[in-house]
From TrEMBL:
GO cellular component, one term: membrane
Protein name: Fatty acid desaturase
Keywords tagged on the record: Membrane, Transmembrane, Transmembrane helix
TM spans (from-to): 56-77, 83-106, 118-135, 169-195, 228-247
Cross-referenced InterPro entries: FA_desaturase_dom, Fatty_acid_desaturase
Lineage: superkingdom: Bacteria
Species in which this protein is naturally found: Sphingomonas kyeonggiensis
A GO term for molecular function: oxidoreductase activity, acting on paired donors, with oxidation of a pair of donors resulting in the reduction of molecular oxygen to two molecules of water
Keyword Transmembrane helix belongs to the record: yes
Domain Fatty acid desaturase: 80-348
Length: 371
């Protein structure tokens, strides 16, 4: 939810369309050595912050989902367009926050939050058509030291080095997410069960919230295979039931339209957040941990808007790349400790940015230079 979803279905971009800017315009992150003092401080100063608070997780997720679904119902039932619009915005923001717990599910040990993944999938993952198997096993590859920013990273494209039209396309893809997911689960899943070649394609290319079109996913194994199958079955049943209900008039076109709009709204906000989660300036070479950190973004300045567009700790995305298993509710304290302990010359302070608008302007300006 990217970051989320952190991502949407892979963009179908040909190799020719991945043309980047001249080498002279690129930032050579591959030459950045590790800042040992920063890495040591990040590990030592946060040793006591790694246990997730069950009360915070359950309360935040359930309250956000409750507000989101109540606002969704109010959007459908609102007597006037202004009221529907206000309720719709609340629904999008609340469900966006609730859906982003897919990111926490991917990183934390499930034994520390028993049944959290199950309940999240039942009330959010399946109804919003983003079950957690679409992110689990994919997002962790993005954090692999030897994969980040390379062709083997499912969640990375050198967006800052690409053509200007790639950014609007990136957002357009997210707007189509609910329709794409209805087709994926309601049509492709049942067909793939009887057409083995299609099944291999669905697993490899349409079973991950990824942005790298060259990435192919492997079939699930072990315990995760069971998780994958029941989640996919749930999303398939939900999709077929919804399509059938709309076709037979049980669910009105108005209600269905609101559903598509809300899910698309959640996906678009997440995609905007994804655009500023990194600087996207690596050209495919392996990076040190410090270089990966510098290609990522913190927006630590307190502000109401930051809590809306980057909730559940995602405004500390660079810090998250240093400490991937740190619970979201501990990131504020971790940032305070590390930034206080380290000098201004430390690499830690160089990944902090003041606003979403400034980051979007930087990315857009970089793509303009790629023309």
């Amino acid at each position: 939810m990217a970051d989320i979803m952190t991502k949407s279905l892979a963009l179908k971009i040909d190799d020719a369309e991945l043309e980047t800017a001249p080498a002279s315009a690129r930032i050579k992150l591959s030459g950045v050595p590790d800042d040992r003092a920063m890495l040591r401080a990040a590990a030592e100063l946060t040793r006591d912050l790694h246990t997730p608070n069950k009360r915070i997780y359950w309360t935040d997720m359930l309250v956000s989902a409750g507000i989101g679904y109540a606002a969704f119902a109010a959007t459908i039932l609102a007597p006037t367009w202004p009221l529907a619009l206000v309720a719709g915005v609340v629904a999008v923001l609340a469900l966006y926050r609730a859906s982003l717990f897919i990111h926490e599910i991917t990183h934390l040990k499930h034994s520390l939050l028993p049944n959290f993944r199950l309940v999240w999938n039942l009330i959010l993952g399946v109804p919003l058509l983003v079950p957690s198997f679409m992110y689990e096993g994919v997002h962790t590859m993005h954090h692999a030291r030897t994969r980040y920013g390379t062709v083997e990273d499912p969640e990375y494209l050198p967006l800052a080095l690409m053509k200007p039209w790639t950014l609007p396309m990136f957002l357009l893809v997210s707007m189509l997410l609910p329709v794409a997911m209805l087709i994926r689960f309601g049509v492709l899943t049942p067909l793939s069960l009887v057409i083995p070649p299609l099944r291999r394609l669905v697993v490899a290319k349409y079973s991950g919230l990824q942005i790298n079109p060259k990435f192919s996913r492997r079939a699930p194994e072990g315990e995760f295979r069971t998780q994958w199958y029941w989640q996919e079955a749930g999303a398939c049943i939900f999709s077929i039931a919804l399509i059938t209900a709309v076709a037979t008039g049980v669910v009105s076109l108005h209600a269905f339209g609101v559903y598509l709009a809300v899910v698309a709204g959640v996906a678009v906000i997440n995609q905007v957040r994804t655009l500023v989660a990194h600087l996207w300036e690596n050209d495919g070479e392996p990076l040190t941990v410090t270089a990966q950190y510098l290609d990522s973004v913190n927006v630590p300045t307190p502000g109401f808007l930051a809590y809306l567009w980057a909730p559940v700790g995602l405004r500390y995305h660079a810090l998250h790349h240093l400490l991937p298993s740190l619970p979201y509710h501990a990131l504020d304290e971790a940032h305070r400790r590390i930034s206080t302990a380290l000098e201004e010359a430390s690499a830690y302070h160089k990944a902090n940015y003041p606003t979403l608008r400034g980051l979007m302007h930087r990315l857009a300006a970089s793509t303009m230079g790629a023309r």
